[in-house]
Design a protein that fits this description.
Radius of gyration: 17 Å
Bound molecules: 2-phosphoglycolic acid
CATH topology: TIM Barrel
Number of domains: 1
Distance between the termini: 9 Å
Helix content: 40-55%
Order of helices and strands: EHEHEHEHHEHHEHHEHEH
Strand order of the largest sheet: 1-2-3-4-5-6-7-8
Number of helices: 11
Shape: globular
Structural class: alpha/beta
CATH architecture: Alpha-Beta Barrel
Number of strands: 8
CATH class: Alpha Beta
Length: 251
Amino acid sequence: MTHKYYIVGNWKMNQSLSEISTFFKDLGTLPDNKKYEAWIAPQAIHLSKVLENGIKAGAQNVSDNNTGAHTGEVSPSALIDLGAEFTLVGHSERRAIYKEDNDFINRKLRLSLEKGLKVILCCGESLEERENGMTESVVNRQIELGLQDVHEANRSDIIIAYEPVWAIGTGKTASPSQAEDVHQSIRTKLIELWNEEAAKEAAILYGGSVKPSNVAELLNQTNIDGALVGGASLKGADFRALCDAAEDQKE
Ligand code: PGA
């Protein structure tokens, strides 16, 4: 629905410096005036290395504090200072492994926006929740609580990523129509929370086993504005294929 597609690589806790160099060699030069934004979220320690290669980069996680005695955390302002474009918040691995709840995620989101980062808010249901018919209610709650008290002026810096937990790293992708159904309900939720115009402008990305062979069909759905990609973003040639598929989409 937005004008531009987003292809966002989430490298998770992967890639060595030499693998990153190989990645950029294999990626080649992306065209100017492209129809998509190509972003990478490496480990925070590798942000400068990615930025050096002329690609927009962001963090996989961020602190809910901006400065001070928070050993081991990364502040939104430090990310801005380095030239980062965005941060993910609420990735399902952070929710599940590090027990991050919606309230904590909302604090990170608001602080990051306030400091000038774009934010990708991740949401998605578990297999059990899907099987119990709870997909929409779980996702709507994550969106509603995740976006609580966001200033109107910051809405355009928010991107939503729908990532069904059962599809992440499993090779099981949601079918384009399963994904589109949830994306449509997210759009409806955004209309309710914001307004029609802001909701239409918002990019809603799909994530969960996206790869070069299935990306075109996913991007072809009305409410899918891009992809958040883990495994298939690690190799430059695969990431390039994802980008090329976005370029080949009809407007
Ligand atoms: P995947 O991961 O593409 O490897 O399924 C997606 C994600 O976790 O963002």
